[in-house]
Amino acid sequence: MSCEDLEIIVRKLTEPLSDLDIVTISGMGGIGKTTLARKAHDHLKIWYHCDIRVWVTVSQVYGSGNVWLEALHCLSKQTNIDIEKDYEKKDDNELANLVQKKLKGPRYLVVVDDIWSTDVWDSIRTIFPDCNNRSRILLTTRETKVAIYANPISHHEMNPLNLENSWKLLCDKVFGPKYGHPLELEEIGKQIAEKCQGLPLTISVIAGHLSKVARTLESWMDVSQTMGEIIASRPDKCLGVLGLSYHNLPNHLKPCFLSMGSFLEDDQVETWRLIQLWIAEGFIWWPESDKSLEEVAEDYLEDLISRNLIIVNKRRFDC
């Protein structure tokens, strides 16, 4: 996450548009969507702009009752209104109505974090009242289609960090933001940062490991050569995040995604090569379709890209 990302989101949330507006953040798992949303939620300008700030986490296992309970807990901390102590015994509709009632009037920001489907968005969207007072909803999702569905105009796509920002983040986490780094570690350190593919979560995991080893060239070279093992040893972090995206895939896309593991770590795979592999392996299924196998495979690829599971290096008309 860059300072520019935060500036963009805060500006969108405080624009003069009087109607209720929905701002969306999308990007692959581990890229820092929740961190960006949290920094926006806590930003001083948002404190001045909004009377009430509510944070709810949806996640894959969606339960509307849990979402509304989380919203009510946020509301109870920020208002003088005494919410009934037995609201945890109420059904989902009663909880939803109570949330809607408490949001009518004040200017609010509701952060809906980690939403996975348009159906879930449809089920909760109508609860948030539009009082024509510049209230805002900030939505984070891994699914670009969900973000565009919620609002195609105020959509912010997060990109991986460049090498400069990746290296800076790694240094800040290993040495502290106020301290410099040994010059002899800069070259190998930048190689490590580059291997993290611009993902803040991966950088954080590797930085945590580097903080525990000797600050010597030999130790850091060893980390560079064993990064895959280090990441695999923390399944609750990087692999856990990736696993959520994988399990959310429809069955026909799972073998296509897993096939990416047959390429080397830093390979830039041409589209035609990937499509031919999928066709040869029998991964492409096209019942009741007039499309060719190649066209269906291209649809599969676009779906994986939309789900932020594949990073596009560049697009060409002849790819």
Features of this protein?
globular, Rossmann fold, 5-stranded parallel beta sheet, 319 residues, 16 helices, alpha/beta, 3 domains
Which structural class do you get from the secondary structure elements?
alpha/beta
Strand content: 5-15%
User: What is the helix content?
Assistant: 40-55%
- In CATH, the topology of the largest domain is named Rossmann fold
Distance between the termini: 30 Å
Topology:
Elements lengths: L2 H11 L7 E6 L6 H9 L2 H6 L2 E6 L6 H15 L13 H12 L4 E6 L4 H8 L10 E6 L2 H7 L4 E3 L5 H13 L10 H10 L4 H11 L6 H9 L1 H6 L2 H13 L6 H5 L12 H10 L12 H14 L13
Parallel strand pairs: 1-4, 1-5, 2-3, 3-4
Helix pairs in contact: 1-2, 4-5, 8-9, 8-10, 9-11, 15-16
Short description:
Residues 263-311 form the Disease resistance protein winged helix domain. Strands 2-3-4-1-5 form a five-stranded parallel beta sheet, with helices on both faces.
Q: What does the model show?
A:
A 5-stranded parallel sheet has the order 2-3-4-1-5, sandwiched between helices. It folds into 3 domains: 3-157, 3-Layer(aba) Sandwich (Rossmann fold); 163-235, no CATH class; 249-306, no CATH class. Helix content is 50%, strand content 8%. The chain is an alpha/beta fold and 319 residues long. Strand 3, helix 6 (118-125) and strand 4 (136-141) form a beta-alpha-beta unit. Helix 9 runs parallel beside helix 11 (217-225) and helix 15 (271-280) packs across helix 16 (293-306).
